[in-house]
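User: Sequence recovery, please. Input:
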């Protein structure tokens, strides 16, 4: 049986995952790569200046999709901002490639944890595996 940690590890291994938000009834999908596990929750990161930030604050319901080695993961959940500088620093330390663009407490960096959702692993050859969190 898979766990939420398996979903986190899958996102890390895939390197790129796609985050879907909504604005005025229109879906918006973009690639993400920064992900972390803090306190048993999956975290993502963006900049407050970006449209995705505004969309997440207006409507926290998101979907994430990633594909790796014939398996895809779909996470349906809410993304909730964690304003703690420590959480920002933890995520940045786990994703050093974005440190040139972001710093904890810089007024732009923000991190969101995923909650009230499900993570589903799919393939063409096996039954879906679903994790509720």
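Assistant: Recovered sequence (133 residues):
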């Amino acid at each position: 049986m898979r766990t939420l940690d398996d979903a986190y590890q899958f996102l890390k291994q895939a390197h790129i995952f796609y985050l879907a938000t909504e604005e005025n009834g229109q879906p918006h999908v973009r690639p993400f790569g920064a992900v972390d596990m803090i306190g048993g929750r999956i975290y993502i990161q963006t900049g407050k200046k970006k449209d995705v930030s505004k969309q997440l604050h207006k409507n926290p319901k998101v979907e994430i999709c990633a594909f790796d080695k014939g398996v895809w993961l779909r996470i349906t959940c809410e993304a909730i901002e964690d304003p703690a500088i420590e959480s920002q620093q933890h995520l940045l330390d786990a994703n050093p490639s974005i440190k040139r663009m972001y710093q904890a407490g810089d007024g732009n960096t923000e991190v969101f944890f995923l909650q009230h959702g499900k993570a589903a692993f799919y393939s063409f050859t096996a039954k879906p595996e679903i994790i509720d969190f």
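The two ends are 14 Å apart (CA to CA).
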